[in-house]
């Protein structure tokens, strides 16, 4: 489990595939403003956040799911994705994926607000093939922030920052996080992308390893009545770890 957690670059990606940043905006200023406006005027509001990835709940950025935003849902599916899918296929040609095989596995708008203390998100993995982070407001609206990606040079002190409308693409299973802002408000549209023709066997095996190890850790080692159960869980974790290594070759 520790070996899986320490792995920096998930196959088939290489050190040259950790980040791709657009040279021109993928969303117009008007489209960015439309998404922000719908979020800020949402009748449910931004709601509350829970602790995520070792970041205390009071520091985690606010989030709204795309499916709760009717106008933005249409904008993303009918305007953004026809631009985004070809960009992903072109950016990661080693995947040999086709734009028509890509799918949106999930999407959310994140709001970091320094005045509320909602400023960051800890290192984590998304799990799907590619994550797309799109800046919805310009760099002049906040200080600090950006996306940190493990494996990049001095990554913790060199977050990737983008102007309004630009997109950052990175492997979904590489560890990354939202660097803290120190002033202002930062809005980000985050899209999780999968390939309908690829089955991430390695990821599923990793998930099973984690599930089995965590279940075994809940059993007191001095509880002889559950000794066999604990051993079965650890044997299962060992098998799934071997499978993960095989599929991740």
Q: What kind of sheet is the major sheet?
A: 7 strands, antiparallel
Spatial shape: globular
Helices and strands, in order, run as HEHEHEEEEEEEEHH
Report low-confidence residues grouped into runs of 5 or more. none
Radius of gyration: 20 Å
The helix content is 25-40%
Individual helix count:
5
What structural class results from the helix and strand content?
alpha+beta
Number of strands: 10
Mean pLDDT, rounded to whole units?
Answer: 90
Query: Roughly how many Å apart are the termini?
Result: 17 Å
**Could you state the oligomeric state of the chains shown?**
single chain
Proportion of residues in extended strands: 15-25%
Summarize the model shown.
With 249 residues, this protein is α+β, with helices and mostly antiparallel strands. The chain is built from five helices and ten strands; from the N terminus they run H-E-H-E-H-E-E-E-E-E-E-E-E-H-H. The protein has helices at 2-6, 29-40, 70-91, 201-217, 227-247; strands at 20-21, 62-65, 102-113, 121-124, 130-135, 142-144, 147-149, 167-171, 176-178, 181-195.
List the helices and strands and how they pair.
Blueprint (H helix, E strand, L loop, with lengths): L1 H5 L13 E2 L7 H12 L21 E4 L4 H22 L10 E12 L7 E4 L5 E6 L6 E3 L2 E3 L17 E5 L4 E3 L2 E15 L5 H17 L9 H21 L2
Antiparallel strand pairs: 1-8, 2-3, 3-10, 4-9, 5-8, 5-10, 6-10, 7-9
């Amino acid at each position: 489990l520790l070996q899986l957690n320490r792995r920096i670059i998930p196959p088939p990606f290489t050190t040259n595939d950790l980040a791709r940043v657009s040279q021109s905006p993928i969303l117009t200023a008007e489209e960015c403003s439309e998404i922000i406006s719908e979020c800020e005027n949402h009748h449910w509001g931004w709601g509350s956040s829970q602790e995520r990835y070792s970041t205390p709940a009071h520091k985690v950025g606010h989030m709204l799911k795309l499916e709760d935003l009717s106008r933005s849902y249409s904008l993303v599916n009918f305007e953004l994705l026809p631009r985004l899918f070809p960009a992903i296929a072109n950016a990661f040609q080693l995947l040999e994926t086709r734009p028509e095989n890509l799918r949106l596995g999930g999407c959310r708008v994140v709001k970091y607000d320094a005045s509320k203390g909602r400023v960051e998100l800890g290192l984590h993995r998304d799990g799907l093939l590619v994550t797309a982070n799109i800046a919805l407001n310009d760099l002049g609206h906040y200080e600090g922030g950006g996306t940190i990606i493990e494996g990049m040079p001095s990554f913790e002190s060199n977050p990737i920052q983008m102007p309004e409308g630009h997109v950052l693409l990175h492997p979904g299973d590489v560890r990354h996080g939202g660097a803290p802002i120190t002033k202002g408000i930062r809005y980000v549209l985050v899209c999780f992308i999968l390939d309908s023709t690829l089955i991430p066997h390695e990821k599923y095996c990793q998930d099973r390893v984690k599930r089995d190890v965590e279940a075994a850790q809940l059993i007191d080692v001095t509880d002889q009545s559950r000794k066999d159960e604990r051993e079965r869980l650890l044997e299962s974790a060992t098998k799934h770890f071997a499978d993960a290594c095989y599929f991740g070759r």
